[in-house]
Amino acid sequence: MTDPTLPPPAEPATANRRQPGIIRRVVDFPLVLIVLGLVAIILAVMLVGMIVNGLLATSHPLGVLIANCAVAAAIPFVWRDFKRWVERVPHRDFSRSGAAMELGGGLMLGAGLFALAAGLVILVGDYQISGIRAPADTQWAELLGMAIMSGVLEETLFRALIFHQLERLAGSWFALAVTSLLFGLAHLTNDGATLSAAAALVVEAGVLLGAAYMLTGRLWLAIGIHTAWNFTQGWVFSIPVSGGEPPIGLFISRSTGPDWLSGGAFGLEASLVALGVSTVAGLTLLRLAVRRGRIVPFGWLPGSAQTKL
Q1: DSSP label at 205?
Q2: Where are the membrane-spanning stretches (predicted)?
Q3: How far, in Å, CA of 268 to CA of 277, rounded?
Q4: Is residue 41 in some structural domain?
Q5: How many domains does the chain have?
Q6: Considering the domain boundaries, does residue 261 fall inside one?
Q7: pLDDT at position 237
Q8: Residue 70 falls within a domain, yes or no?
Q9: Most exposed among 250, 251, 266, 305, judged by the fewest C-beta atoms under 10 Å?
């Protein structure tokens, strides 16, 4: 028999916890957050680009560099607010903890991997260097700005947004497979792109950059690899970056071999040599991610359980 002098037993904490409404549950669904995130980032990039273009002479190389850096600098702030106000979860994507080491390591790794691939092609005689330009005579500003902006923007979209939400939906391996495929398909509209070039990007870039994000839970390593790879390819070796006209870089060079070795008009990243070098690096990072317990198992993790440690 209950003692009437004692206070009634406390109800479980979960009983008083307010359950999210239907709108909140819809917004929290990973595929909805992907759409909202894409809209937020693209609109922010367009707005910052319009403001910078109105203030600067972006036809000048330094103007191009400043404009691209301004867009890249705005993305972390937009992403922070999106996570805070829309997704309503903490995040570590642009955390300052470990940023210098991870970004620096990524820059060295990206430059080293591309230099290794280019060096192997030089050894077999497919890529020939006939001279070196003065840095002032190169497109260093345009190429640096493009590398920084594409590194920050694409890694935020493909890794922090799409990879993370697909990982919530169906686990790390599903997220890695889908984002790698999307990354390759996204470059099919580039000049000189072919199905084989897109397939090469799926494996070499999609897996490598996805593994870098899985390993650290932050974007700095992936951004460093992405930025340094593009800049080394375009500025140092004067090789088209994912298609287009050959840039005016440091080396005066030309390719004489078959497309499977040189990458053809798309650039060296579409070659079997770059594919092999990047795949080895990507699998190495994946192995480290597995050892550190960074793999999220299959299954949707709703609510706060989605936060990556």
Answers
A1: I
A2: 26-56, 62-79, 100-123, 143-162, 169-188, 194-212, 219-240, 260-286
A3: 12
A4: no
A5: 1
A6: yes
A7: 94
A8: no
A9: 305
